[in-house]
Here is the input.
Amino acid sequence: MQANPPLVSAGRAGAIAADRTDPLAPLREQFVITDPTVVYFDGNSLGRLPKQTIGHLQHVINAEWGDGLIRGWGRGWYEAPQRVGDKIGALLGAAAGQVIACDSTSVNLYKAVMAALAARPGRHAIVSDALNFPSDLYVIQGAIAQYGNVHTLSLVPSHDAELTVDLADVEAAITTDTAVVLLSHVTFKSGYIYDMQRITAAAHARGALV
Here is the structure.
């Protein structure tokens, strides 16, 4: 699969034609859409409600919680983070047990950054980019403050109106003083997809975590 295909602008007519031939178009019927005129682009923050989720939630509330009460913990609740994590991991190409679903993105990121800095006590640099989600950068800044402001945050700039970042610039920013490299695999501003294999190799070559 091509990571970042070229953008094609065909106007409204082209967009309508593309929608009609989109193999994923039937999936639209699986979601709650109260206003069909709304074009919703914020799925990265909170996606549309899947219709089947309504039934699942009602079952959890009425049967598993309402009827099962505390017995729910022994009927799959404890294992849910691992079970869901394995399903997410399958999408990422990860092995069973390597992904877990827990907390919010920001809470998990904070714990990961704090652990990464603790694992690299002799290093003082953190590398991210100008395309990163704002709250991710706030988390990094909070971790830096928690460690007594002895670390620095370097943001690799974009040279094309925050659409992409040159991989060579990211690689150049990673040094032997870098503790952790923190990037979004798919950037929320443009949908740009990083070559994470290349970035991870560059970071590991210099002893940094990703």
